[in-house]
Structure formats: structure tokens, C-alpha cells
Write a structure and sequence with these properties.
Helix content is about 35%, strand content about 25%. The strands form five sheets. The chain has a six-stranded mixed beta sheet with strand order 17-16-15-18-19-20, sandwiched between helices. Strands 1-11-10-5-7 form a five-stranded antiparallel beta sheet, covered by helices on one side. Strands 2-4-8-6 form a four-stranded antiparallel beta sheet, with no helix packed on it. It has four domains: about 120 residues, Immunoglobulin-like (Sandwich), CATH 2.60.40.10; about 45 residues; about 35 residues, no CATH class; about 200 residues, 3-Layer(aba) Sandwich (Rossmann fold). It is elongated. The protein starts with a helix and ends with a helix. With about 500 residues, the chain is of the alpha/beta class. It is built from 14 helices and 20 strands.
């Protein structure tokens, strides 16, 4: 742990997510610094109970000792038929007792091997990772032990544990097992449990070896890393993001350049053309220094789960991807959560703002509370007075019509509201199923009625001036980025 803390002190949180012009170097930088995302914010973590020293020398017999005891007991029962065997029975018992005690004493005084856990301090959600346990035997005797790593069972799935290994004198072995985090947040690993076998294999000792560790589980950044890794022309095509304007047709003047075939005649600067006696065009860029503010619903509906991730996890992934794109566009990004824990992250510009943003929301969890849209709108109006793009990530229902419409009407007076609604894929699956009997017909009619009521709510929200996206969790990130880029190029902010 001292070496680990020394490593952390060599890094500075300002080094994280520093902007780069080269996408390949940028991708390499992400990979190298991915494990250090958690450093910039001190978090409350789940405490692990470290066993006391009394548990380090608890001896228990192995299955190998039980046959010997069983044989000696059966021999004692045979004395009822052969009393003359009493001397042999006592002699056998004394020999077995001496061997067992000698073996137990040898195990009791044997120093335990050293165990070192090798795991990244930050892991992505839902991605299988390899954890390594390095077992070092500094003694001059062969060591056989069974190891089990006490990972946080409430936060991860595990495979390939426990494992039985043999370590030669003066050497080391590496035990590998697979771990898949399933819950975001900060979690504690307890010391590794090791059952050390005696020289004759009659006893085993329960040891707790190694140091506890804190591991933080973040949303999966695969989409962002993939976006960074690609060239500018490839990014949008892979993620489903479409460009709808030609080069140079933004809102803010950027520079003058020579006229190119395909440029609009409106871009020609006639004064500069007259001075230089060659066609000169104006180059524009999208508006910068604007604000994107996310309203993240942490209510009970976001607990819905269609695949390995919940709707809330998909919403977090979409939020992080759009935040990265917006920060690269020069906008400031902030977050306000509601419907559970109310967490406020002040909008900040620049690529370096992504690190504190992720560290501020990665441990948020959906709750059992209903979303209060009116309260969320009041919080935004109080904290964000400058015009901004409000991105509401939620799961709409028809019963939200009154509360949500009043909140959107209040926000639309000052801000541009974008509602990103997560559509349940199972609804489309039910509609695509053939109808063969009455229950299937009733299910089809119920789904159609449910979608009709939801569409009416969305139409009313559009009439109030908001933009409504209705996308499945898998397609939500690309849909949000598409809409954001369209709004930027249209100058609606």
C-alpha cells in the first residue's frame, strides 16, 4: 500500500483528460490514465472487515485425516471380538496421535507465504477483468495452499475461484481469476483467504494474507475511447452521428481562406476578393462558450433493465459521451441529479472538466423515489440563470403529463430543453410478435394504448417548445450527440 500511495502522489489530477490534437496520442493517453480517474475526489467507500490475528492460526483437519481416524475407530470396535488386539490398537492410536500432533505443530510454526493482489484501482462496469494474485514462497519447503480472494460479492461476479496451487521453495506462482463489476461505486476488497496445508496434508490453516484494496467501478468508457481513437471522418459514421452542414457554415466567424469548389456563394468575402484579386471565402465555426446542463433522473423507473445494464447505466453512458463532445466543442457542462440523491456539479468548460464530472456522478444509483420534475426545474432556475441547453434524461409515463409539462414550460422561458426519453425495447418486441390467441391480442392492444398515451405527452411537450428524443437505451448516445450537433449548427442556443 505504501508503494501504491507513492505512485498516486506522482500524478496530479490536472493531468487527467488533458486535451490533445492527435486522436492516436489521445487514445493512448486515455488507456494509460484510465485507472487514475478516481484520484481527484475523495469518496465514501464500503468498509471491509479485516480479520484479527486470532483467525490467522485456526487449524482444521483435512479430508485426508478423516480416513485414518475412521480406521482407528473401526479397529476399536473390533476389540469386542478380538480383545487381544488392544495393545495394537493403543499403539496405533499413539502413533496416529504423534503424527497428527507433529504435523499440526509444523503447520503452526510455518510462516505464511506472501500474497500480492494486482488489480486496477478503477474498473469499467460490465467488462470482465483479470485479477492476479502473486504468491511468493520465501521458505525452503514446498507450500501447498488453496486461495480465495474476498471480492465485493454485492458489486461483482467472479469466476475461477477458489484455486489450489503448489509453490516451490524460493519461487512464486501467479493465480488468475476473472471479475466482472455489476454495480458502480467504490468497493473494498478484504485480504485474501488462504488455506495452508501441513507437510503431511493432515491439517490446514486459515490465513488472511495481503492487504485490503479499494476499487472504484466507473461507467464503461468504451464508446468514448472508441470515439477518440477514430479519425474525425470515421467517428460520426461508426457512432451513427450525421453531419448536415458543409464545412465553414457555422455561426461564428473563424478565418478567411481561399475559395474552394463546393463553397456557398454567401461565404465569399467580396472586399477581400477585390484586394487579393482571387476568390476569398469566410470560414465559420459553431458557437462556443455555451452551457450544456444535464438533468439526470435517479428515480425508480430508471431501475428498469433490458440487458446487462439498467436504463440508468445507459443514461450515464450517453451523458458522458455527450459531455465529452460538448467539452471538445468549447461548451461548459454541468449536472443536476434529482429523484433520489440531489447532486449539483457546476458547469465547467474545457476537456479537463470531464474528470471531476465523471468522479462526481459515477457512484450515483437509481432509488425507489418518484421523479419530481417541478423541484428539478426550480433547482435549475435557481442555479443556472444564463441560457443553456437543458438535457433531461428520464423515462416518461403518461401520468407525468401535468408535472412534467409545467416543469418544461417553466424551463423553456429561459432555456432550450431537450428531453431524452428511454424507450423500452421490449415494447417493440411485443408489437412484432404474431397474434394467435386472445391473451396475445389483449397484450398487443395494451401496448398500443400505452404508446398512444406516451405519444400524446410527447406531442404536448413539443408544443411547449422542447425537443423530445425517443430512443432505445442502445441508440440513445448517438441520438443525443446528433441532436446536439444539429442545435449547435442551427444556432438555436
Amino acid at each position: 500500500m505504501n508503494n501504491f500511495n507513492k505512485l498516486l502522489r506522482t500524478y496530479d489530477s490536472r493531468d487527467l483528460f488533458r486535451g490533445h490534437d492527435n486522436p492516436v496520442n489521445e487514445y493512448s493517453w486515455w488507456v494509460q490514465n484510465y485507472a487514475l480517474l478516481y484520484k481527484s475526489r475523495l469518496l465514501k467507500v464500503t468498509e471491509s472487515r479485516v480479520p484479527d490475528d486470532s483467525m490467522r492460526f485456526s487449524l482444521s483437519p483435512t479430508p485426508l485425516l478423516l480416513p485414518w481416524l475412521t480406521g482407528w475407530t473401526l479397529l476399536g470396535l473390533a476389540l469386542s471380538f478380538r480383545p487381544e488386539w488392544l495393545a495394537y490398537w493403543l499403539l496405533a492410536g499413539s502413533w496416529l496421535l504423534a503424527v497428527a500432533l507433529q504435523d499440526a505443530f509444523a503447520l503452526h510454526i510455518r510462516p505464511p507465504p506472501q500474497v500480492e493482489r494486482q488489480i486496477l484501482p478503477a474498473l469499467p462496469l460490465g467488462v470482465w477483468q483479470t485479477v492476479r494474485l502473486r504468491i511468493t514462497n520465501a521458505q525452503q519447503q514446498l507450500v501447498t495452499l488453496t486461495v480465495f480472494d474476498h471480492y465485493p460479492t454485492a458489486a461483482a461476479d467472479c469466476a475461477d475461484l477458489p484455486q489450489r496451487v503448489t509453490v516451490k521453495p524460493g519461487s512464486w506462482v501467479e493465480v488468475c481469476y476473472r471479475l466482472c463489476p455489476v454495480v458502480r461505486g467504490a468497493w473494498a476488497f478484504a485480504p485474501v483467504q488462504a488455506w495452508l496445508e501441513s507437510p503431511r496434508g493432515l491439517w490446514r490453516r486459515d490465513d488472511r494474507l495481503g492487504e485490503p484494496a479499494i476499487v472504484r467501478v466507473y461507467p464503461d468508457f468504451a464508446a468514448i475511447v472508441q470515439y477518440i481513437r477514430l479519425t474525425s471522418d470515421q467517428r460520426e459514421a461508426l457512432l451513427g452521428i450525421h453531419r448536415r452542414r458543409r464545412r465553414g457554415e457555422g455561426q461564428t466567424f473563424l478565418q478567411l481562406r481561399e475559395y474552394r469548389i463546393g463553397d456557398s456563394l454567401r461565404q465569399i468575402d467580396w472586399k477581400a476578393t477585390a484586394r487579393t484579386r482571387k476568390p476569398i471565402a469566410r470560414d465559420y465555426q459553431d458557437e462556443r462558450n455555451q452551457t450544456v446542463l444535464f438533468l439526470l433522473d435517479c428515480g425508480r423507473r430508471m431501475r428498469a433493465q433490458d440487458d446487462a445494464l439498467s436504463h440508468f447505466d445507459h443514461a450515464l453512458n450517453a451523458l458522458i459521451l455527450l459531455a465529452y463532445v460538448a467539452l471538445r466543442q468549447g461548451d461548459a457542462v454541468g449536472v443536476q441529479s434529482f429523484g433520489g440523491e440531489r447532486r449539483w456539479l457546476t458547469p465547467r468548460p474545457g476537456p479537463g472538466a470531464l474528470t471531476p464530472l465523471i468522479n462526481g456522478i459515477y457512484d450515483l444509483q437509481p432509488t425507489l423515489e418518484p421523479p419530481d420534475y417541478a423541484e428539478a426545474a426550480q433547482l435549475i432556475l435557481t442555479r443556472q440563470r444564463k441560457r443553456a441547453l437543458i438535457v433531461l434524461l428520464t423515462n416518461l409515463r403518461d401520468e407525468d403529463q401535468d408535472d412534467l409539462c409545467s416543469a418544461v414550460a417553466l424551463l423553456s422561458r429561459r432555456h432550450l430543453v431537450l428531453i431524452a426519453n428511454l424507450r423500452e425495447p421490449i415494447l417493440d418486441e411485443w408489437l412484432a410478435q404474431p397474434i394467435h390467441d386472445l391473451p396475445q391480442a389483449q397484450l398487443y392492444a395494451t401496448v398500443c394504448h400505452y404508446l398512444l398515451l406516451r405519444d400524446r405527452v410527447q406531442q404536448e411537450l413539443r408544443h411547449l417548445g422542447s425537443i423530445v428524443l425517443n430512443a432505445s437505451p442502445q441508440h440513445l448516445p448517438a441520438a443525443m450527440v446528433n441532436q446536439y450537433l444539429e442545435l449547435k449548427r442551427g444556432g438555436r442556443l
